[in-house]
Amino acid sequence: MVIPAEQPFFDTAASSRNGVELPCRILIVDDDAALRRTLPHVLAQAGRQFDECGAVGETLDRLERHSYDLILLDYRLPDGNGLAVLEWLAQHHREEAVIMISGEDAIDAAIGALRGGADDFVRKPYHVAQIQRAVQNVLHRTALERANRAMSQRLRASERLHRYLVESSPDVIFTLDVDGRFSYLNPRVDELLGFERSQLLKRPFMLLVMPEDQDRIQALLQACRDGNSTGFNVELRLRRNRHALQDGESTFVTVALNGLPMNSRDRDGERGIGLYGVARDISERKRAEEIITFQAYHDQLTRLPNRVLFRDRLELAVAQAQRRSGTLAVMFIDVDRFKLVNDTYGHAEGDTLLRNLAERLNSTLRRGDTLARLGGDEFTVLLPDIGRAEDAETIARKILDALATPFALSAGEFRASVSVGISVYPRDGSTAEDLTKHADVAMYKVKRSGKNGFRFFDAELNAHHRQRVSLENDLHGALEREEFELYFQPQVSLAQRRVVGMEALLRWNHPLQGQIGPSTFVPVAEETGMIGEISRWVLHQACRQLMKWREAGHVDLRMSLNLSPHDFDHPDMVQEVLSIVDRYHIPPAHLELEITESMMMQDTEAAAAKVRALRAAGLGVAIDDFGTGYSSLSYLQQFPVNCLKIDRSFVRELSGPMINPIISAITGIARGFGLHLIAEGVEQVEQVRVLRSLGCDTMQGYYFAHPAAATEAERWLITPPCALA
């Protein structure tokens, strides 16, 4: 059989039989039905046919009956993982190519898939172009491999064809004589290592082995020569011809070397005559493993170490500090107001800010320090081998100074600040977990104290944090355990000498700590997002109680209750309030919702729109603690409230000989805007007299009655508090 030199032996452009092009069959294995429907459209090309499966068992049943060119295999499936399919394919000597697709973060999943026989590995989430390119590459490579196998079958009968197969192999095929010198090399060595065959023939194989691998390989070759080995399969690095390298090319190639001893039988028995070797280039696989390893231990957005790598380095640093009796510090850094960037400019701008912020943080650190991103807008810093705790303070100040310059975003400049918590070994903990946790505790204290600063951890702070965490844990489920209760404090009219309203006040009957006031647990509920559910409960209970009092004949009574500023963040807040009012048949004018001045400052337009909607529906809206915040007349024009409540701090000062000018101003504002006025915190008869002289008729406070449960509050409706007698 003669093979023309100018024509390829096998056409790898398409698989064909008897001149007829065969379709390319692709099996999609994924438990996501939407993804199984989408991929055929994304990967559609002429001649491609697609089947789909959603589980391991279903896949194996289909493979029993059909064969495929390519399997797109999800790693995690309902009844197992993709490795089971790879194992089945290997056991049955199947030829299907496999691309493993996985969202697993563990590096073992990727490396296990590649070593299990997968041709490629794609990590979720992926771009469309990435999966298209992976499929095209694998199909092309599979076609080449099938061509190679076809050549092997067609050339097996002829020595010349055997030589053709060897010399056109994508692997380096060679033989060594008994002294370990090359006796044959196929042409692939020139392309892979840059050496001509003539340069290497009769030269020792060990000249190509990198120094780090020489002792190991020399021992394996010696074992084969001594007859103590039937062969070996190892990974090693082979040196490339430095004179044939282009700029930037690696000086070595990683190969999988399969070596088999060659023996000759004569009258004296078998004797070794050399070694047959096949070296396959696995540089791409090794690079893929390195990329997967990097991704497993680094944040893909900022390229910084991630939580896993940071913990490893911190544990190592702690162990070294223990041996040397040294000191180290851990910083927990949280970006202030980062959610504002994402909400205002979009997540792309937020990602840009995080990358730029990571660069600035890194620029403030020493060589050997570690900056890591834990996720979101949280970073950690490891400062090993510091001389004293004050060194960490120096770096913290450098961080704050580095962020003083605004960041340039596409929509304009943004001034970013951070809250930094610091813990020091061994003072604040002896383990990586304790040091990180305590730095986190200190950071949250900075957050609650105004942000844009740093703080060291201390034991008192930890006790407060533990108490707060315990309170947060107990708060979850407090509604289901029916631990909340409403108390009521009367609002009395001096002119009418009766109770005209009730303010609903929330109390938490804690099973261990007793009754807890809202000032203690409401901030925790707001921070954890539980405040919305609690506010709905308060609204339901207050309206239900008002309905009962109205059914008892107190039809003129008004109910007031406080709303959290976070309640106004919900777009359906107004509809929800009106629905509850309607459910209990409450005339809207008899329910008054109290808001704070600070809430009006946070999002004026959005909050004002909700207040206008509530007022348009007939509900009352009062500004609680008026005068303690901004007290801007412009806000009274934007927010159509109907009532002002004078804060108790101003009422308290009325017990002296001088009238507080702020109260005079507030009463004047109320008259000027035609607003109802209520004074809270009234405790003395002198305060009553002064307030009445200023034109304030409605009051509440201990002078009239302490907050009480509904049963006692109902008695005030029948018999007014004795202070009105």
TrEMBL record:
Q: Where is the Response regulatory domain?
A: 25-139
According to the entry, every stretch annotated as the EAL domain falls at 468-721
InterPro entries assigned: Biofilm_reg_signaling, CheY-like_superfamily, EAL_dom, EAL_sf, GGDEF_dom, Nucleotide_cyclase, PAS, PAS-assoc_C
Residue ranges constituting the PAS domain according to the UniProt record = 158-228
Q: Does the keyword Nucleus apply?
A: no
Coiled-coil features, chain-numbered ranges: none
GGDEF domain sequence ranges: 326-459
This protein's UniProt keywords: Phosphoprotein
Q: Which residues carry this modification: 4-aspartylphosphate?
A: D74
Identify the residues that the record assigns to the PAC domain, covering every copy.
Answer: 232-294
Claim: Phosphoprotein is one of the keywords in the record: yes
PANTHER family in UniProt: BIOFILM ARCHITECTURE MAINTENANCE PROTEIN MBAA, DIGUANYLATE CYCLASE DGCP
The family database entries (NCBIfam families) matched by this protein are listed as: GGDEF (TIGR00254), sensory_box (TIGR00229)
Task: Kindly provide the name given to this protein in its UniProt entry.
Answer: EAL domain-containing protein
* Source organism (scientific name): Thauera sedimentorum
